[in-house]
């Protein structure tokens, strides 16, 4: 198969496209890849085609896995225990907002042929893009730490404590490189593997729902009633944790890169529109599956443990075969849950099988998100720095930062300390969200970059409001949580003040840059902020 490079000029913006040269229609085959590694799209008649949908299916599966990582599971079960079904609407709203932003991400990759990190490199001066890269690395490493924690706890549970937490952390290094071997067999093999992991999670967590049989009426009310009666500040922080664990910033960078794996002829408007549509529906199905599974987890633990005390759980475990001693103290305090304790409770309440099924589901979640973190990290490094590393080096880089602190916590502390680390990581990733949403809204709102696929007025308003709400939530979180802790240590307080100033300065710059991208006029304001933009002076 031969390929050629062409330049398509739109206004003052020129973008490079790779399009097929002299490929007959019958060469296109769904499920096959061409010499460049891209999955080919069947050239069928107009209208919906399942063959085309299958050819486009893949990026949404990886997103589905990413929306069900151990951080999500931790946030879900904590939500059920602390707030019953009352903040399920936050989970639903977060998933919908995530779908809105993922739609922009996939459109950016399809229309421009550049993923989000590459576009940041082209559109921002060196200092802002360096800051953005660091923030994305923080988010990716934080997510990777959650994957390490989830996998280690799952192995600890499934082995009946024979594999200690610190050894489980070490094992995650080995399994990371095992997944890279699978990547050698081709993109479609990797995507089918991810599909199997999604299937494992559907079966395992679905089983827990069937044996628990939560209240369907309360579940439905929690999804549609946007309020939380008699909820304290801990529930508010839990809601923020749900947002942070659901709308993860590096997923926006990841999705814009994954869609480039399909051979889309971007010189034809019809083909670009078709790709946008199929990728959106594939993403919609994936995120719907993630919403169902996350809702199941919330419902199971809301039904079983809301307002329960430790002694209540101990009484449930009496006479069971589950090793519950030293897990739940025999007191009347409200039960504090983590992924491990959740498995023990399920085993006590519903039988030993329920405990092992839970462990398998958590293990699948942790293993699946290993590769998504690898892909996201590689895209960020190649896009922001133009530094190309082989995947094994990239995995070693990210996982080293994730494993070292997690290993020491697992070795010298308890499983409860890992639970606290998980909550902190969810909050950290929530803080990074504006550094993905603001550039994404800016670029997809620029008519010079997106042409006729530029965001409409409604989309601009909605996505801008999403970014504003997230920033406001982060202000509330920092002021109500971290500031209280920082007041006890002047060094931590000084760091928090310095970071807050830098954070809001960067957010202000990104907002102004976004407004300049939305402007269609060549004003002084636009020229001031976009003076280094690539489309102003040279071809991409």
Which helices and strands appear, and what pairs or packs with what?
Layout: E1 2-10, E2 13-21, H1 50-56, H2 59-66, H3 70-83, H4 88-112, H5 116-123, H6 126-158, H7 165-183, H8 187-212, H9 216-224, H10 233-246, H11 249-258, H12 269-305, H13 310-317, H14 339-350, H15 352-385, H16 391-412, H17 415-432, H18 434-444, H19 447-450, H20 457-486, H21 490-518, H22 524-529
Antiparallel strand pairs: 1-2
Membrane topology: Multi-pass membrane protein
Subcellular location: Membrane
Keywords: Membrane, Transmembrane, Transmembrane helix, Transport
Care to describe what's here?
The chain has 540 residues and is mainly α. The chain has a single domain, classed as Amino acid/polyamine transporter I, CATH 1.20.1740.10. The protein has helices at 50-56, 59-66, 70-83, 88-112, 116-123, 126-158, 165-183, 187-212, 216-224, 233-246, 249-258, 269-305, 310-317, 339-350, 352-385, 391-412, 415-432, 434-444, 447-450, 457-486, 490-518, 524-529; strands spanning 2-10, 13-21. It has a two-stranded antiparallel sheet with strand order 1-2. Strand 1 (2-10) and strand 2 (13-21) form a beta hairpin. Helix 4 (88-112) packs parallel to helix 11. Residues 1-35 have low confidence and may be disordered. Keywords: Membrane, Transmembrane, Transmembrane helix, Transport. Belongs to the NRAMP family. It is a multi-pass membrane protein. This is Protein Malvolio.
The secondary structure category is: mainly alpha
The number of distinct helices, counting runs of at least 4 residues, comes to: 22
* Highest CATH level, the class: Mainly Alpha
Named CATH architecture: Up-down Bundle
Q: Hey, roughly how much beta strand do the residues contain?
A: under 5%
Radius of gyration: 24 Å
Number of domains: 1
Task: Could you tell me the CATH topology label.
Answer: Amino acid/polyamine transporter I
* H/E series: EEHHHHHHHHHHHHHHHHHHHHHH
